[in-house]
Amino acid sequence: MPKPRQRQAPATPPSAPSRELHVFPNPAPERDYVIRFDVPEFTCLCPLTGQPDFAHFRIEIVPDRLCVETKSLKQYFWSYRNEGAFHEKVTNSIVDDLVRTIAPRYVKLHADWYVRGGIRTYVTAEHRQKGWKPAPAVTLPGGEA
After folding, report:
1. Rounded to an integer, what distance in angstroms lies between the CA atom of residue 129 and that of residue 23?
2. How far apart are alpha carbons 113 and 122 in whole angstroms?
3. Which end of the chain offers a freer environment for a tag, N or C, measured as fewer CB atoms within 10 Å?
4. Which distant-in-sequence residues (6+ apart) come within 8 Å of 82 by Cβ?
């Protein structure tokens, strides 16, 4: 019977944490549409105790000229894993970095920070491009908006 072969680890990992967000051109800049990201496994460290903090992020973006590339967004979130920061700081910093990188028409990040010490924390931060207003919702007879 042949001996099982052990897989060799790559010399360098195929990906690594990074704060660099990559972009690509919005394929439909003439239209308002929403890109939603669901990030159920975000982790960072409590700045006071060094213990892990866990959060579920829901991000909604109405892009303008640029969109954020998903793999770089994953590596960006990964970069927080060993960083100590308060929930409010992390949530607002992510919004600031997205605004600085893609200048969206609108971005909203809702962070659901899991229970620690008997308290669950929700932090929501948003940014609206100056002068941008969403189009009114369309309601069809017998349907939903």
Report:
1. 18
2. 6
3. N
4. 45
